[in-house]
């Protein structure tokens, strides 16, 4: 006799203060095994997290049930990175439990904010690409679209950045040290993943060759599920992150033979695969472990998704059941992996297998930097994944046949388009493999997608013009407005209602209020309150005393020369030079506080030099009475999602100053505009679309556009000429070279200065004058407070387009063809 409760649908605890208190104390007492009176903050935080999870579990199970029964097509988002940010606040928001939780905890003598601050953010990503993945899965859940996010559960995420004498020092990110209450392990669903070995090919009497992979070693992939709750809609999608373990954790015979270290070597070897995130965000190191990571999570994910369809599922119908979205080239090994499964395990012939595979994938490219495009050496690929290399060769042969038919005798084109490159060594161009296999290839902003068509993948665009589309990036308004900026969110809701949170283009209804003095005052109030909140955070976090009556000029993003943090620095040093040289009276300078946030890839020397220089300039400027009250430069360490949530709402000016044609899109630019900061920027990435929507009067444009950059590059760019011909630029660079920011030592920053004067690949010197002129316009505009506020309001009102919900609508319409499941 089945117990009635066993059949009953899972019901969440009552969403009342009493219900919440009961659930919380139950978790504290039974799961943490402590009484409230003796509980640690981490006990309280963990119990709180489990309590919130319990409120969402019923929805999670219901979503899964509906998904299994519905057999609807879903998105499988394959990403090597997810920059999730803290979970507690977002889950409380999604479940509409904020007030209940706050009151319930208060009634237990606890503070919700104190417990929220206890959470360590999962830093399972480097920057833009990883955060975009997190915004996308949030939007799909909120839009009721079936989606499973697949990735890697790195034991160590992006390094923690500290500064020692102004220089970046990396610390390991042991984010799991106190456990992670938001994940649920499923060791019973572990997947075995093979590596190495050789391929045995037998040809039968009919001359049909069948290849069998004889792997050398294997590991286990253990899935950890993390909830992805939709906003107030009762849906909870899943993020499934894979952790590597040894198939045989412990070899007793070797142990008994006394070689204890050897006995567990397999375990450590296996665990290495998901041990740590590679901290590069633009230059692949081509390391074997990185390829192991990529194949590991892809093999686990494909196996998992296919097994979940049930053993009687006909794989011919796979394209109707799923679209595997490739988040850049990092997961593209999934293409030969699916072919291997279909041919070697399921007995499909090549053409049938390709007919299925070539309908299951789509590829998003996130970069324009040639050095960021992954090319895996045939030597390494052949050693680690010999069967996959064979399959890639065959895909290439079949593909080049298509090219040859279309352009007979165009051997140069064949060489240019081949997935296999011969120079500098034999390698596999992963972006080409993704382009050949994908049903669609998209860039992440209109300009980027155009440059992919016209330049980076031009040959392919000529062959398959319809394959190349654009989907401009977006950001989730739940985390980056509702959660990060309650002051502004409440003002917006009080003015136009609540609908904007899931229909962001409704912000347009705010535009008329730009002409309303009271609304402008309230808007400024919110901005000022956010400056106070930021000051309080930076004081405790970094010992920084942030002026709250200055214009807040913010540049936060990964440190990379193409993003041109050096140009921002030249502006600051030039302002300082003008004052200390008496060319400008400090009293005439608009009080500005410059805030940087940026991590440099540990191996990126020049980036680290630039970080050192920024900190040293700050040290000198902040302690020089000549500019006291006028200029401040701060660089809080360890920029991450949590700091972004506090920094962005407080900003007045958003620095988006990359060399035109370099930044694929940018997403920080969108977050700043939606939080009422005005952009100073080049016509690069999504800046172009922001400027079009907010209007030229509400955007400080400067510098060359992409065609001008290309022309100057073609003509030959000589940065030294700009240094020699522009006295203000010369004075600025000379001040740095003079040792003013390095205790008089000329050598410390010589590499930075000489790189700019003699190399300057990203043309900072060429755009300097235009940038300085634009900054003067910023000063003038900021002096007219009402006009500035009006412009800031129009930035918010006209940027609803940059919601990741809209991006998802485009992916669904142009690529996926999935439908919401209500
Ligand atoms: C293999 C090393 C590596 C790792 C990560 C990457 C990412 C593609 C770099 C990245 O994060 N790109 C950023 O993606 C954002 C989301 O689309 C864009 O908004 C940024 O412009 C782009 O730089 C490239 C190469």
Automatic annotation (TrEMBL):
Molecular function per GO: glycogen phosphorylase activity; pyridoxal phosphate binding
GO biological process, one term: glycogen catabolic process
Domain of life: Bacteria
Residue positions, PTM N6-(pyridoxal phosphate)lysine: 671
Reaction(s) this enzyme catalyzes, per UniProt: [(1->4)-alpha-D-glucosyl](n) + phosphate = [(1->4)-alpha-D-glucosyl](n-1) + alpha-D-glucose 1-phosphate
CC annotations in GO: cytoplasm
UniProt KW keywords: Carbohydrate metabolism, Glycosyltransferase, Pyridoxal phosphate, Transferase
EC numbers: 2.4.1.1
Cofactor: pyridoxal 5'-phosphate
Function: Phosphorylase is an important allosteric enzyme in carbohydrate metabolism. Enzymes from different sources differ in their regulatory mechanisms and in their natural substrates. However, all known phosphorylases share catalytic and structural properties. Allosteric enzyme that catalyzes the rate-limiting step in glycogen catabolism, the phosphorolytic cleavage of glycogen to produce glucose-1-phosphate, and plays a central role in maintaining cellular and organismal glucose homeostasis.
Membership in a protein family: Belongs to the glycogen phosphorylase family.
Record's protein name: Alpha-1,4 glucan phosphorylase
Species of provenance: Micropruina glycogenica
């Amino acid at each position: 006799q089945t117990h009635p409760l066993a059949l009953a649908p899972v019901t969440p605890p009552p969403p009342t203060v009493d219900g919440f208190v009961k659930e919380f104390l139950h978790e504290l007492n039974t799961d943490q095994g402590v009484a409230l009176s003796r509980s640690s903050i981490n006990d309280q935080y963990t119990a709180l997290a489990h309590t919130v999870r319990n409120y969402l579990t019923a929805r999670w199970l219901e979503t899964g049930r509906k998904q299994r029964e519905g057999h609807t097509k879903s998105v499988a988002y394959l990403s090597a990175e997810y920059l999730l940010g803290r979970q507690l606040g977002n889950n409380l928001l999604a479940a509409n439990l904020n007030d209940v939780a706050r009151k319930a905890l208060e009634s237990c003598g606890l503070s919700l904010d104190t417990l929220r601050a206890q959470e360590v953010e999962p830093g399972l990503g480097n920057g833009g690409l990883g955060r975009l993945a997190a915004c996308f899965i949030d939007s799909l859940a909120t839009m009721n679209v079936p989606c499973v996010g697949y990735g890697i559960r790195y034991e160590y995420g992006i390094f923690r950045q500290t500064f020692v004498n102004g220089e970046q020092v990396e610390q390991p990110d042991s984010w799991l040290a106190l456990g992670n209450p938001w994940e649920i392990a499923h060791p019973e669903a572990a997947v075995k993943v093979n590596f190495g070995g050789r391929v045995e090919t037998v040809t039968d009497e009919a001359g049909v060759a069948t290849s069998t992979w004889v792997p050398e070693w294997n590991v286990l992939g253990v899935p950890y599920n993390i909830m992805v709750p939709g906003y107030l809609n009762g849906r909870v999608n899943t993020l499934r992150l894979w952790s590597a373990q040894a198939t045989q954790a412990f070899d007793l015979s070797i142990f008994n033979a006394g070689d204890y270290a050897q006995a567990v070597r397999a375990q450590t070897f296996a665990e290495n695969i998901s041990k740590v995130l590679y901290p590069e965000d633009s230059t692949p190191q081509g390391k074997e472990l990185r390829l192991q990571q990529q194949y590991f999570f892809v093999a686990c994910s494909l196996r998992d998704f296919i097994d979940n369809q049930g053993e009687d599922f006909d794989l011919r119908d796979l394209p109707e059941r799923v679209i595997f979205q490739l988040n850049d080239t990092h997961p593209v090994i999934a293409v030969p992996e699916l072919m291997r499964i279909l041919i070697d395990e399921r007995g499909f012939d090549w053409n049938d297998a390709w007919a299925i595979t070539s309908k299951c994938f789509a590829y998003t490219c996130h970069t324009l930097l040639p050095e960021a495009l992954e090319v895996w050496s045939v030597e390494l690929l052949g050693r680690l994944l010999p069967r996959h290399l064979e399959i890639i060769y065959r895909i290439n042969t079949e593909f080049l046949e298509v090219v040859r038919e279309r352009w007979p005798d165009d051997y140069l084109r064949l060489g240019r388009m081949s997935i296999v490159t011969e120079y500098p060594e034999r390698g596999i161009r992963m972006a080409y493999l993704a382009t050949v296999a994908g049903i669609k290839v998209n860039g992440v902003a209109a300009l980027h997608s155009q440059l992919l068509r016209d330049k980076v993948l031009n040959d392919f665009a000529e062959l398959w013009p319809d394959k190349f589309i654009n989907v401009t990036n977006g950001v989730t308004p739940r985390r980056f407005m509702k959660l990060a900026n309650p002051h502004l969110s409440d003002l917006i809701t009080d003015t136009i209602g609540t609908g904007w949170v899931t229909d962001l283009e409704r912000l347009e209804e705010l535009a008329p209020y730009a002409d309303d003095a009271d609304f402008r005052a309230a808007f400024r109030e919110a901005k000022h309150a956010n400056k106070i909140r930021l000051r309080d955070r930076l004081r405790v976090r970094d010992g920084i005393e942030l002026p709250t009556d200055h214009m807040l000029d913010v540049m936060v993003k990964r440190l990379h020369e193409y993003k041109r943090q050096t140009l921002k620095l030249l502006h600051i040093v030039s302002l300082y030079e003008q004052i200390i040289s008496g060319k400008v009276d400090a009293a005439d300078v608009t009080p500005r506080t410059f805030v940087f946030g940026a991590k440099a890839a540990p191996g990126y020397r020049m980036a680290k030099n630039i970080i050192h220089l920024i900190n040293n300039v700050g040290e000198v400027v902040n302690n020089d009475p000549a500019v006291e009250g006028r200029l401040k430069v701060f660089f809080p360490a360890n920029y991450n999602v949590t700091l972004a949530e506090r920094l962005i709402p407080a900003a007045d000016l958003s620095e988006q100053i990359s060399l035109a044609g370099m930044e694929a899109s940018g997403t920080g630019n969108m977050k700043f505009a939606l939080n009422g900061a005005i952009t100073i920027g080049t016509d690069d990435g999504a800046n172009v679309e922001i400027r079009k929507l907010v209007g030229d009067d509400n955007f400080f444009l400067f510098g060359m556009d992409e065609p001008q950059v290309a022309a100057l590059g073609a003509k030959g760019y000589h940065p030294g000429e700009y240094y020699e011909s522009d006295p203000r630029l010369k004075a600025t660079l000379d001040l740095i070279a003079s040792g003013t920011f390095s205790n008089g030592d000329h050598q410390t920053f010589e590499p930075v200065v000489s790189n700019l004067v003699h190399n300057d690949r990203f043309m900072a010197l060429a755009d300097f004058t235009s940038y300085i002129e634009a900054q003067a316009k910023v000063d003038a505009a900021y002096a007219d407070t009402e006009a500035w506020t009006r412009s800031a309001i129009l930035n918010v009102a006209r940027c609803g387009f940059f919601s990741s919900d809209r991006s998802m609508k485009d992916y669904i319409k142009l690529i996926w063809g999935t439908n919401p499941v209500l």
